[in-house]
Write a structure and sequence with these properties.
Blueprint: H1 13-25, E1 31-37, E2 43-51, E3 68-73, H2 83-94, E4 98-102, E5 109-113, H3 126-133, H4 138-142, H5 150-164, E6 168-173, H6 179-194, E7 198-202, H7 205-222, E8 229-231, H8 241-254, H9 260-272, H10 287-291, H11 312-321, E9 325-329, H12 330-340, E10 357-360, H13 366-373, E11 376-379, H14 380-390, H15 400-409, H16 419-460, E12 470-473, H17 476-479, H18 485-514, H19 518-550, E13 556-565, E14 568-577, H20 581-587, E15 594-599, H21 609-615, E16 624-629, H22 635-638, E17 639-644, H23 655-670, E18 674-677, H24 681-692, E19 702-704, H25 710-719, E20 724-727, E21 744-747, H26 758-769, H27 774-791, E22 802-806, H28 810-813, H29 817-822, E23 828-832, H30 834-850
Parallel strand pairs: 3-4, 6-15, 6-16, 7-9, 7-10, 8-9, 10-15, 17-22, 17-23, 18-20, 18-21, 19-20, 21-22
Antiparallel strand pairs: 1-2, 1-3, 4-5, 11-14, 12-13, 13-14
Helix pairs in contact: 3-5, 3-6, 5-6, 6-7, 8-9, 12-13, 14-16, 14-19, 15-16, 15-19, 16-18, 18-19, 23-24, 23-30, 26-27
């Protein structure tokens, strides 16, 4: 709430009188008003939008414009914003409108979001931005090893112009440009001068932490101190106090107790925790334990919850609502866009407060994240967990439904005489047996589907190529085959029984709510909400599976993931769009006044055509501005790139043995201090086992991805300058190790996508159908971008030196190989036999040790 603020500072006296009269005429209930703020910010005219329930007519909100103000009363007098308030304010903010909360007497006001007036936009003074980044500035005096970089200045100008002109910028900034400072300075200055929030989205936790704990505090100390920056995390990171209280007092009636010691530890931790965030735990809880206390949107009572004021999630959310700079990850950003895109742009579950200007760092990952959020998936494990929450598989006396029966039974004598036997009979004689049946049918359905999917895979691959983890593409014509008739019959049974059960659960919820007993309703409200949430989850699951098997999904690809897990076979159905370009333009770019997409790896063959086509940026027209900024580092002096030409081709007989020996030889030459990057977990594990036994390398600590968290492995790697880290996929990017700990990067294979990946297949087919060349237009560019990321792990500062060794001779022997090399910064390249490359590598490292 704004300190010492009077409604008269924001509302004209006639407006106040009008609002008071309307609220009185509505019996003191909630009323939603819309007004217009004048040049001085005072609302001088207002009208009623809706009475009784300000969230019943979201279509009304579409007419909002810059300078509009929504005004909404809280009859209780408590002006703390509810989840619904924040959701409406989010929609209003996207249109430039503000949101005020008042009490019925209009003697108190809460400015949740001020209105934005486009005519008041304060342009960034570009010279002012450059002043902070040039030699002689406070930044230059405070930053160790500072040097003025033309590329950084160029990027800062582009970001400033993007904000000023409401444009979209696509900027590749090579390693060493200092892109975070180049976008943070104009972002902060814009947010402060325009009182307009800027959102910064990243793909990795590492970059988020760098921004929040290093770069932004530095900006605060050396550029502007009058701003607030917040790291915003998703709801699933926070514990729910109400769920924890119930777990502590009644968990024995609800849940099985095999994890009771861990659950008690979680409850004790929550009692002392300041923010209830999972990252503050000093141990990693089991998913089932965390699930019993985690905050979940559809199980949240929001402002009606007795813990609302002290709720960890909403305290964090209120902090975010007051921030000038929000730092999030791409997944949270897309979750927010997905929620806001539902129900005509309005959804009370909006994840983030209003924002309309964004920085998308690590933007090379955007297509993958968008594909996930514009698609859908369900799993056998997910269904088991859902059914287990309703009725425990191991003990049918536990779970939500038996718990509700027990609660009802304890109210005998205080509730209508017919109510208890009717509801208890419906639960015990209909719903619980139905859930047991659904559990059985669901398990059979998933297992038969998995068997048929694996049969498809066997026909596609040789027996020796069978893997524990498989991915099987499912076409509509495959599902029409006779062998799938049993699956469809079981699915039809599952759909029928599941929807019948859902209807019965809705009946129970309505029956409980219809009881006219205030004390009863207060006690049972949480259980009814939980029952409704599980009902909707069940229906959503059934709808997704039905779409997968019975509906043609043009423009989408379907596949089934199957893998062996400790607890049994994991089976997941997936549906994803083949292209996200149109959706990106419609649901992402069109919702932002300005956006900056940046990364060190966006271009292929010196241009952005591939990235623009994949992510829909080509559809933004004249709004888009492009900038390619090379790294200021001297790669010719800093990097030796070795490419052995006599290595067997991947897949050739003897390739693995030769490759493993080459890795060992190279590690001996570099004295450890290396990343060895793979495209296959199996190959990584095999190489690690064999190389770990090489006596020549016994003094070099060997680390393997999966033997610890990524952060713990990197920490150990930095601390021991002679160590070696074997990594796959996630270690190709987002890892920053400077200095002598990392002086060699070995790329074992060119990072082409797995050719039988269903999504890759579908995209290749779409390209071919449209007259393109799948390899040149998709497969190769994807590999080039990933290759650039892997190469980029080596040189992270001006003083770094080292070698990159590529053990895939396709880069030298195939016509497309030159595209990979040309995509890199100019460095010293040697293409020759492995022996000659090794000799030169030895000379290179000898000179480094000598100097």
């Amino acid at each position: 709430m704004i300190p010492n603020s009077s409604p008269l500072n924001h509302l004209d006296s006639d407006v106040i009188e009008f609002i008071v009269n309307e609220i009185s005429g509505a019996g003191g209930k909630e009323v939603l008003f819309c007004g217009t703020a004048g040049k001085e910010g005072l609302v001088t005219d207002v009208k009623v939008l809706s009475r009784g329930n300000s969230y019943s007519a979201p279509a009304i909100l579409k007419g909002l414009a810059s300078g509009s103000v929504l005004i909404h009363n809280h009859p209780s007098g408590n002006l703390d914003p509810s989840d619904e308030d924040i959701a409406v304010a989010s929609i209003a903010g996207n249109a430039g409108a503000g949101f005020y909360i008042v009490n019925n007497e209009l003697d108190n006001i809460y400015i949740l979001a001020p209105p934005f007036r486009s005519e008041k936009k304060k342009y960034i003074d570009i010279d002012h931005v450059l002043y902070f980044l040039r030699d002689g500035s406070k930044i230059s005096r405070s930053l160790k090893g500072y040097e003025e970089r033309a590329e950084q200045l160029d990027m800062a100008v582009s970001v400033s112009e993007t904000f000023n002109d409401d444009k979209i910028a696509l900027i590749e900034a090579g390693t060493g440009v200092g892109k975070s400072m180049a976008y943070l300075v104009p972002s902060v200055l814009w947010a402060v001068s325009n009182k307009e929030r800027v959102l910064i989205s990243t793909n990795t936790i590492n970059l988020q932490e760098q921004l929040i704990y290093k770069d932004i505090p530095f900006i605060h100390d050396n550029v502007c101190s009058d701003f607030k920056a917040i790291l915003v995390k998703g709801r699933g990171n926070y514990a729910c106090k109400k769920k924890a209280a119930r777990l502590g007092s009644e968990g024995g009636e609800l849940f099985e107790d095999q994890n009771i010691a861990e659950e008690r530890s979680l409850v004790k931790w929550m009692e002392k925790s300041k923010d209830g965030c999972r990252s503050d735990l000093n141990f990693v809880p089991r998913a089932s334990s965390w699930g019993k206390i985690v905050s979940e949107a559809d199980l949240c009572g929001k402002a009606r919850c007795s813990y609302y004021k002290e709720c960890f999630f909403y305290m964090a959310r209120r902090e975010a609502a007051s921030a000038d700079i929000m730092v999030v990850n791409h997944h949270l950003l897309f979750a927010d866009l997905a929620v806001k895109g539902e129900k005509g742009g309005f959804n009370e579950g909006a994840v983030l407060p209003p924002y309309s200007r964004v920085i998308l760092d690590e933007a090379h990952n955007i297509e993958d994240v968008a594909t996930e959020y514009f698609g859908a998936s369900v799993s056998k494990r997910g269904m088991e967990l859902l059914l287990g929450r309703m009725v425990s598989k191991k003990d049918s006396s536990r779970g939500l439904l038996p718990y509700i029966c027990n609660k009802i039974a304890k109210k005998k004598g205080t509730l209508p005489s017919s109510f208890i036997p009717q509801v208890s009979a419906l639960i015990n004689e209909k719903i619980i047996p139905s859930i047991e049946y659904i559990r059985s049918v669901s398990s059979e359905f998933f297992d038969v589907t998995a068997y048929l999917s694996m049969e498809i895979k066997k026909k596609e691959a040789k027996a020796e190529e069978q893997k524990r983890d498989i991915r099987v593409r499912i076409w509509d014509h495959i599902l029409s085959g006779e062998e799938w008739l049993e699956v469809k019959q079981k699915l039809a049974d599952l759909l029928r029984s599941g929807r019948q059960c859902a209807a019965q659960m809705k009946t129970v919820a309505r029956s409980i709510r219809d009881v006219e007993d205030k004390e009863w309703k207060e006690n049972i409200e949480t259980l009814v909400m939980e029952l409704n949430a599980y009902t909707e989850r069940l229906l959503s699951f059934l709808d997704t599976v039905e779409s997968f098997f019975f509906m043609e999904t043009e423009g989408h690809v379907k596949w089934i993931d199957i893998s062996d897990k400790i607890g049994g076979m994991s089976i997941r159905f997936n549906i994803a769009p083949v292209s996200v370009a149109e959706m990106m333009n419609e649901k992402v770019y069109s919702n932002f006044k300005s956006a900056v997409l940046t990364s060190a790896t966006l271009s292929v063959k010196g241009g952005f055509a591939y990235f623009k086509e994949r992510t829909g940026l080509e559809k933004t027209g004249e709004r888009l501005k492009e900038k390619l900024l090379l790294s200021p580092f001297d790669f010719k002096a800093q990097v030796f790139l070795g490419i052995p030409t006599d290595m067997p081709l991947p897949g050739d007989k003897g390739y693995e043995e030769v490759m493993i020996k080459a890795i060992a030889d190279a590690l001996y030459i570099s004295e450890g201090r290396a990343f060895v990057l793979f495209t296959s977990y199996n190959m990584m594990n095999k190489a690690f086992r064999e190389i770990s036994g090489d006596e020549r390398l016994s003094s070099y600590p060997m680390m393997l991805q999966g033997e610890g968290t990524r952060n713990s492995l990197i920490k150990r790697f930095r601390e021991d300058e002679r160590s070696v880290l074997f990594g796959s996929d996630s270690f190709w990017e987002g890892v920053d190790v400077q200095g002598d700990s990392l002086m060699s990067v070995i790329l074992t294979k060119l990072p082409f996508n797995v050719p039988d990946d269903p999504l890759v297949q579908a995209r290749n087919e779409m390209i071919e159908k449209n007259g393109g060349n799948p390899f040149m237009d998709y497969v190769l560019p994807e590999a080039v971008l990933k290759f650039k990321q892997g190469f980029g792990r080596l040189i992270r500062s001006k003083s770094d030196r080292g070698a990159v060794l590529i053990l895939d001779s396709r880069i030298a022997r195939k016509s497309y190989g030159g595209i990979f090399v040309k995509s890199l910064p100019q460095c010293r390249v040697m293409k020759s036999t492995f022996q000659e490359v090794s000799n030169e590598l030895n000379t290179f490292f000898y000179s480094l040790r000598k100097n």
